[in-house]
Amino acid sequence: MEKIAPDVKLGSAARWGNLPDDVSHAASIGDTKSVILWVTSGFPIDAYDRQGFTLAGSAAYSGQDVTFRRLAEFRADMNLPCGVEWLTPAMLAAKNRHAGILRISGEFGADFSLRDKKNRTALVYACDAAMDINTSCVTYLLDQIDDGNGGHRDIRVRNEGHVLVKSDGQGVRKELFSEDVLLINAANVNGYTAAHALMRNDQVNTEYHALTKRMHGLGARITAKTFIQRQTPLCLTNNPAKIAAWVDTLSAASDDLLARELLDSEAIGHLKIADCESFPDHMRKLAERFPGVCLKSASEVFGAHALP
To answer: Are the CB atoms for 195 and 224 separated by under 8 Å?
Structure first.
């Protein structure tokens, strides 16, 4: 697993707990004067408090833009992980929807391809947290991987995890899975990607539709399956509006294989259960684009008359 934020606690015990609680608290409440007094008095700017947070981490978690910028100007490390989950300041900002902090961290050299202890990226956190009209963190992070022509910059990471493999005469066994992928498809230890995160949260406005299409355009695997449970993003919601957005994105796709991956029996079964009344309309729309695939898949689940 590449580019996971390092465990700075191990081998660095002298730095862990060196930051007094009152200074850490000052950073969390935006007391910039006290924070800078500590820094300019010769104390280490990247020291950790007893909870494993740096000054930059505490400011990022609380959304203290002014304090965070001053720390960045004094060369606080933008990539040091914090807490037991090893979240970088960018991840903390994305998780808590602090777009200002996220932009400042990028301005001062944050590496958005870093991953936490469970392999999550800042983008996964941003998609998971986009539960209201504020999707600016997701938009900003997508801007960072956009090559300027609507494509994905060549930033790759490695996904690793265990998948279930059928074994002749021996049932099912777990097998280690590993592949290099574009950053937008970085998966956590369970195979959960940004596409899964965006589908699972409660975002259902027009911005969500635009983000879904943009992520697909940047190379996101909107049909990616988690490692063990083999769930596509579609399987993570019961919301008709979100299902409709996914259908719209798929209908605009040009790859028939994409339809085959999404429209397997499991996904269609979930679509039927989640959205009984409008299921025929969704399937009819997909059938117009992928007639053979949709009709075959639907009939496997519901019989020959699945599409009235």
So the answer is: yes
The two tokens of residue 116 are 């936490």
HSE-CB for 238 with a 13 A CA cutoff: 3
Q: What angle do CA 133, 138, 139 make, to 5 degrees?
A: 90
Cα–Cα distance between 107 and 68 in angstroms, integer? 12
- Supply the Cα-derived Rg of the chain in whole angstroms: 22
Both tokens assigned to 39: 């820094």
pTM for this model (two decimals): 0.80
Name the nearest CA neighbour of 288 among 246, 245, 259, 265: 259
> Token pair for residue 74?
């004094």
pLDDT digits (tens, 9 = 90+) for 57-99: 999 999 999 999 999 999 999 999 999 899 999 999 999 999 9
Q: Would you say 76 and 86 are in contact if contact means Cβ atoms under 8 Å apart?
A: no
204, 210, 216, 222 alpha-carbon torsion, rounded to 10°? 10
DSSP summary character for residue 164: E
- Check residue 261 and give its pLDDT: 53
